[in-house]
Amino acid sequence: MPEAALYRRPARWSETGASPSSLYGFASQSPKQRPNSTLQHHRGHPTGQHCPQQWSVLADCLDAFPPQVEGLAQFLCERLQDTPHAIPTQIKTLSKIDHIRGTEVIDPAKLVQAVQKMVVSEPQIAALINWENRVSDAAADTIAQLVNLVPSDKRDTPALVVEIGRLLNALATEAVGASNVGKDRFAAVNEALLPILYDRVSRLRMAAPDERLWKQAIATPGKKADLSDEEAAHLNTMLHVDLDVSAVKPTDRGVVLECPAATLEDAPFREAFGMDTTSFLRDQLSLDPTANVRWILVQIEGICDYAQAQAGPALYVLGVETSAKQMKVSPQAVWQSPILAIENEQRQIFVNYRFCRTFTDALVKANNKHYRLREALTNDLVSRFHSYGARPGIIAFRQASLPKLSSAVAATPPESQDPGGAEQKAKPAENSAHDFTVPHQVD
């Protein structure tokens, strides 16, 4: 029986000849033709109603035999190899007899309804599509707000493009500085619009019509996930690490570079850091000196300096990436990442704030780029780095007559130390099995 297959559209609309308004697309071939590298035929959404922007229907003359479905899967994988995020995880089928006669859709509304029913039947998938649509709407709203800045009497005239050009130039200039706009115009505008988009996305809440869907998608809210170490590592990596460094420069903020082997030799390392590598691992990171580690440099330039491309060398902090565990509590100068999945192994990054070097582009251009820490994790590292450098210290004396109390008890107000609630208030909060926050560290 011929079938229609549901699959996700590539993010680049030009690949199919579609426009963003073509929410659903169709393609058909004669029974003797096999899928090729282009879609022969594409139409806009048949009903004109709002539907998921990045989902499509590809109608093809497929037999009901599994090899034909596998052939479609292979065709899509080959076609979408430049956009791997668009490769379908799963292919669902609809009866082509029910919806297509020859090359024409019998009832467009019925076909759309069938596709929607198939998607909604799996609420977890439908919830992700719903989130994707809401984010797309937030991006559209950001653009709409920008266009609304153009005076109304110019929006329906050739002056519109001139006014938008002025706005884009103003945004780009204020974001990265006049001298830096020409280096990457897209990045400059993105730097300006991203905070606006982020604010809109961060304020998204469950819409009333979608409440049932999300309740089905998350049937037991708050239930302990019981993540394995491997799952936790992969989730952390997804959130905090960009493994694609093809467009990353060695001086980009958050980039993790290979520490050159020549630097790790005894004499150069002592000259740069005042000790040998064994002492650094043991005394400065609390790691076993014999552990298998990969020496790294992490770029921790200030966010404003980086955005404005300020002249001068960039700041890097020395550290290691390893699967080894610490032998004791770290010094306060040590920052450690959540557990990450790097090269099929669960590893963490350890750096010591006090061991930094500055390098110009020329000095690090040959260094191997391992990956880039995403913004949130980079900001966490940089914030703690500067907090460590700015922490105050005082000389204080304690009266001999006062008992020595723990900081937790000493900080408890007398009125809160009632017999009925003391036990409950003193009980520490229960942490998740995978609390990804950096643990408190002491000198």
TrEMBL record:
Stretch list, region Disordered: 1-51, 407-443
Highest taxon of source: Bacteria
Bias (Polar residues): 16-39
Protein known as: Uncharacterized protein
